[in-house]
Amino acid sequence: MSSVTSGATATTGFVWRAHRRGKVRTLLGAALVIGLLGGVALASLAGARRTASTFAAYERQNRLSHLAVNTFVPDLDRVNAIAELPGVDTSATWLGLDAYPVLDGEVIRDFRYTGVFGSYDGRFLTQDIATVVSGRLPRLDAVDEVVFTPGHAEFFGVGVGDEITYHYEGRPDDPREPSTDLGESTYRIVGIVELPPVLVDEYDIFEGAVLPPAATAERIDSFYYAWQGLRLEDGIDGIDPFIEQVVNDPRVNHLPPVLQRNDLIRAQVQRAVRPQAIALGLFGAAALVATLALGGQGVGRLVSRWRAPIAPLRAVGMARRQRILLASLDALVAVGVGAVLAAAVAVGLSPLAPVGAVRRLDPDGGFVVDATVTLGGAALLAVLLSMGAVAVAGRLTRPVGRAPVRRPAWLAQRAAAAGAPVPVVVGARFALYPGPDERSTTVGGALAGGAIALGAIVAATVFGASLVSVISQPARFGWGWDHMLIAEGGYGALDPDLVDAALADEPDVTASTLVAFSDLQLGELTVPGMGVESVVPGIRFTINDGRAPEGPDEVALGSVTMGELGVRVGDQVPASTPEGTTMLEVVGSMTFPSIGIGGADHPSLGRGALLSDDGLRALVSPGQACYETEGALCSQAILLDVADGADADAVIQRIIARNPDNTPGGTYEQGVTRAADIRNYDQMRQGPLALAAVLAVAAIAGLVLTLVSSVKSRRRELALLKALGLARAELRATIRAQALVTALVAVVAGLPLGVVAGRLAWTRFAEGVGVPPSPVQPPVALALIVLVALAAGAIGSALPAALAARTPVNEALRAE
Prior knowledge:
Layout: H1 2-19, H2 24-62, E1 67-71, H3 76-83, E2 88-97, E3 99-103, E4 106-107, E5 116-119, E6 131-135, E7 145-148, H4 150-156, E8 163-170, E9 180-194, E10 209-211, H5 213-218, E11 223-232, H6 239-248, E12 258-261, H7 262-304, H8 307-315, H9 320-349, H10 371-396, H11 410-417, H12 422-432, H13 440-471, E13 483-487, H14 496-504, E14 509-522, E15 525-532, E16 542-546, E17 554-557, H15 559-565, E18 572-577, E19 580-591, E20 609-612, H16 613-620, E21 637-642, H17 648-657, E22 667-669, H18 676-682, H19 686-713, H20 715-723, H21 728-769, H22 779-796, H23 798-805, H24 809-813
Parallel strand pairs: 5-10, 7-9, 15-20, 17-19
Antiparallel strand pairs: 1-11, 1-12, 2-5, 2-11, 3-4, 3-8, 6-9, 7-10, 8-9, 13-21, 13-22, 14-15, 14-21, 16-19, 17-20, 18-19
Helix pairs in contact: 1-9, 2-7, 2-9, 2-10, 2-19, 7-9, 7-10, 7-13, 7-18, 7-19, 7-21, 9-10, 11-12, 12-21, 13-18, 13-19, 13-21, 13-22, 19-23, 21-22, 21-23
């Protein structure tokens, strides 16, 4: 029995080796398509996983705090008391120092550039560790070293190795008294760093200089507020119980806490990163489907080549299992090589991930092997394609029945009826119907794979154009005014009388309104709120549904907040006040600008509540007038519309010079700030473009393979056409027509598919983050994709057309 089995195996091997001579290029071509397309698919899927998990890895590596508490007076006793509360694992604090940079002998007092963060006990260095962009972190015991954030370094025009001088002052208890001059200190810049939290709204990016603990200790007398980072024993699950302690503990509750919650930051980052990961994953899924379609087509062609040799082998008694193995061996080898190549390509493309702003936080960096996706995906790809090869081989080795009657190709018939040249008619038939050694599934796979590949590229284009339309129009992400002035990052208080006096002298200010920021309690949800003095023409809020609030009992909400509260426009929502609960009517859904109290929770895109100024004051500090009652809510920002043609910069500087918050340099113009969702997604566009380029190359390679295989399958037909008088140029034109028809089918099917997919993806993204869901279909870009697809078909047909033109008539028709 063993001798019979070994003999059969030897016979199978002999027949396989004899028949596959000269066919290596076809096998390698199929492997190349599987490897390239499969590699893109696996790289995209692995990149999506890596993008989604990078921030969690960054949190662990940089020891991010679960909660930060702002003590906005110089009170280290409160800092120490908070650190000793139950549930606190570790505490680290940085101190705000009253320091001003000195440039060319002039003390700069602009609030935006005076930030000096003194690490009191290692914060930014051993906990909430800063991310080094260049240089290094300062030594903990250094007294003459400092690091700068990128924005600070750019403003001052300095870098690693430069020196900077700061003028220190001591703030008096009574703000009406003059500050104390504490002299100057000079430091050497040893690094450029990004401060946590990162991947947040642009408004929340900390910019300033960081001193190590030893240098901070020398200037402790200039300390006037603190931000204390806390790592809790129960992680983010311990945040709410800890806040309850802060509110109820008399040692620490004498000041209202200003909090920065890591769970909210994490949720914000997840909202920003999730669409990137999902988009990349969907791109990978499309590429995987294209791989199965085009790879399956190549596998089918390799198996179909055995149609003629299998019949006589069956006649001489070869078992069906052997015939199946024989017919599928080429395909199995191609699948194996292609799967290995796909894994290698996926690893080779892994440095493109993670995508977006999260990329710079990746603790791994470089090449990464995701065993689950890369190795497991390659194995799954090999199994599916191998099963397809065996299935095709099984059908091929069945007893031959009556050949199916093939209906003429509709397109070819129409072309012939219209009097099209013979090459066009024949090329259309070649594109839509299989050759004698092919199956209809191979032709369908080629057409489906091309359509899916083109659809994926179109979808990415539609999504990108929709994103650009939002990024390029600030009103679409909440900024509907010309200029905004804010007092001390939202921590200051604008004096209404000073504001009125300043604006009264500026006739070029055509519209203005004051805005206050404060958290409010709606139902069980704490929501960042905005109170606007009045909604006037020229100051435009981005209302997506309904209208802006007009009375104190009305509110407009972001779409995310509406979803969390489970309400719609027209519903009532309960709001808590110091005097009880009141009901507010939801009159609109809107997109919020990313502004408010810096470092704390604030409105952004789909999160937030807009009320009238009276409505917000009634909820937060009812009956208390700003600057007249301690603890009263004051406006922190001015929104302005300036007349066209006016010198807006001069207008703004004159208003700032009035010191409307009673603090020299405290009020400044806040430029347009993008939300993390938009900013981070904007930065990821290069990754999908690179993957789309590889996908396009693989699709073209699949087209070339299809054409080459088709030419070899139709050698007799081509030889007959040549014998009937078709010139070599006409044979080349036939294959070009076949390629163009194939590309045209991909365009006709893939273009609408991609447009629909891109619109759906954008709508889901826009609704998820709270921007107006208005997808854009860029006609020029889509037309360019169509032209490139058709040009690729024409160029890709060059080699197969040359092979068709060289078809030898005598050899091909000898059997006839």
